[in-house]
Amino acid sequence: MSKKTQRSLTLHEHEDGIWVLTLNCPDAVNLLSIKVVEELEQHLNTLANNSACRGLVFISGKENNFIAGADVNDITSIPTVDEVVECCQRFEGVLCKFSQFKFPTVAAIHGACFGGGLELTLCCTYRIASNASETKLALPEIKLGLIPGAGGTQRLPRLIGLASALDMILTGREYPARKALRVGLIDAAVPANLLLAQAQRFIHKRPKLKRKASILTNNIAARKIIANKAREQVTKTTKGFYPAAYKALEAVFEGLEMSLAKGIELEQKLFSQLVHTRECKSLVHLFHATTAAKKNNYDKERVAKFDDRRVELIGVVGAGFMGSGIATLAADRGVCVYVSDPNADAVGRLLHHADRYYIKKVARKRLKSFQHAQRLAMISPATEALAGFAAVDITIEAVHEDLGLKQQILQDFEAIAADDAIFASNTSALPIAAIAEQAKHPERVIGMHFFSPVEKMPLLEIVVTKATSPWAIARAVEFGRLLRKQIIIVKDSPGFYTTRVLACLMAEAVRALSEGCPIAEIDQALVEFGFPVGPITLIDEVGIDVGMHVLATMGKRLGLDNVPDLQQLVAQGYLGRKNGKGFYQYKDGKKLAPNDSISNLLGAQPSTSYTRDKIVDRCLLAFVNEAVKCLDEGVVSCAGDADIGAVSGLGFPPFWGGPMRYIEHVGKKEVRASLLALQDMHGKRFAPASGL
């Protein structure tokens, strides 16, 4: 039977009077598409007419997935706001049938229970879940620029109280079964193989469970105080860029003033207003791009004939900040790590870094105490060069940006490496082909560009040369997935993709600075546009000396040779945050006022001709135009990867969806016209890319 005709739901009588409704969509995960909801309604109508039915268990037929949510494509394809409301009403009408039965209904949850799937369970009499690690409950709509649209903003606060409900609705945070039980979201947590039996017991015994929402939920005065505080926190967190968070607050707090039915009507109205917003379209685009990237041509199934084993041992050369992050994260994911650095103090700092990281996880109850010691024991540091590296699956070089040093490390590694070991460089700008220029096995050399801090930043940029073999790429991808990174695969070139586009933005900021635009105004303009930090602050963060090295590495090829020379700043000790002296002043690591002496050193004359829009246009369009050039040249394989890299690695505002989606929002003709105007004012570096 084809996927198009195969039914997703089956209904059968499990024992005398107790029926089981099983959802098993033909695709990899269960989704509540329009067709599935129609099918669900048919089965529920059948049960409504069955006078002998004593109870219903709703369960998944998947091994590790309950319901991943509603089908986003169905929602976003609805053309008008009124039709979105109608769709929500139909869905709510079906879900209400669960609560209207005279017999008890039980949702037996194993695996991911997200969005509309969780909202479905809220309509059941009882919710029980497996205590397996893969069982998570969440309302992640906020991450797509939406709010729950099937009663979640109304039923959840009434069930578990305001504090926990707001935490789930405003963050999309996933609750494991243990936490879900503690807050009252589920009524029992049992091993997965006992789910059905436990559901039957609930139907037979019909326990009267005490479900008291907190006093804060029912107290009008307390709700007003919480509402004000919540709005302040939302504004602080989102900076006003994400309307869904405000709609969620409106739905929750105004809904609690109404009956459940009226509250759900309000939720449907607010949900429908968000579906066609720029923010929702951007975030849904990023969701689809991320999903597509996980199914790229280097998927393990496609290259299993080359390399099909799990990475279990890696080597890290360099115990600096990046090396420390890579080693710490790898050990946290169960990979043994050898670390090589001749500096004993650096090795000590690496171990201290890992120790503090695991201690924090224990404090947050994300690790058991004994696991802290286990993970720390998986890191084996040495001051002896490449000690034990003959056995590693991957060696990751994370030393400073010195081509000769990197080539020497590769040469030393090849002298002892196993025949199937690969060498990866964490360089952010040096071409991988140049590093592998004298290699005996260039097919086993690859780039793995991590972002700082490694433990937090989601992106991993894997850089491949013409010589890199498919199995080496496959292993790098598998290791990246093991680290739970969002991966983009890019073609080798100076700066690859992320460093290249970011360098163009920072170079334009430095040019504006040298022309008299104040430091703070440049940063503020880009922050107000949506970047997490301004470009001048970012140069201070990475180090002025490092920034100059990156610009010199890419040089004339990217039109960065006419950037004002900052070497004089470096010569006078202006290195950035790391030594407390940069474009900004620092005290005890805290950024203070801009360093006015910088402008004098650069010979800049104060100018008042710069407006926020002019600064943004100049810096942003330099970034966007270079991103299009990277796509034109095949440095990135698709627009989705370009957007993922910019958002996940460089802080491009997610509500714009990335540079390529930004062009779609603004219009290709408008972007091209703006670039031509900038070209007239500032020169050929703003010549529009051919893709425009």
What key attributes describe this structure?
single chain, 692 residues, alpha/beta, eight-stranded mixed β-sheet, six-stranded mixed β-sheet, 29 helices, 20 strands, 13% strand
Chart the SSEs and their pairings.
Layout: E1 9-15, E2 18-23, H1 34-48, E3 55-60, E4 65-67, H2 72-76, H3 81-100, E5 105-109, E6 112-114, H4 116-122, E7 126-130, E8 136-138, H5 152-160, H6 162-171, E9 175-176, H7 177-183, E10 188-190, H8 195-205, H9 215-218, H10 220-238, H11 243-255, H12 260-274, H13 278-293, E11 313-317, H14 321-332, E12 336-340, H15 344-363, H16 369-377, E13 379-382, E14 394-397, H17 403-416, E15 422-425, H18 432-435, E16 445-450, E17 459-464, H19 470-482, E18 486-491, H20 498-514, H21 519-529, H22 535-542, H23 544-554, H24 567-571, E19 584-587, E20 590-594, H25 597-602, H26 612-632, H27 639-650, H28 659-666, H29 668-682
Parallel strand pairs: 2-3, 3-5, 4-6, 5-7, 6-8, 7-10, 11-12, 11-14, 12-13, 14-15, 15-16, 17-18
Antiparallel strand pairs: 1-2, 8-9, 16-17, 19-20
Helix pairs in contact: 1-3, 3-12, 4-5, 5-6, 10-11, 11-12, 13-27, 14-15, 15-16, 20-22, 20-23, 20-26, 21-26, 22-23, 26-28, 26-29
Q: Categorize the overall geometry.
A: globular
* SSE class: alpha/beta
The unreliable regions are 300-305
Would you report the number of β strands?
20
Task: State the separation between the terminal residues, measured CA to CA.
Answer: 45 Å
Residue fraction in strands: 5-15%
Largest sheet properties: 8 strands, mixed
Count of helices? 29
Side by side, the strands of the main sheet go: 13-12-11-14-15-16-17-18
What is the percent of helical residues?
A: 40-55%
Radius of gyration: 28 Å
Mean pLDDT: 89
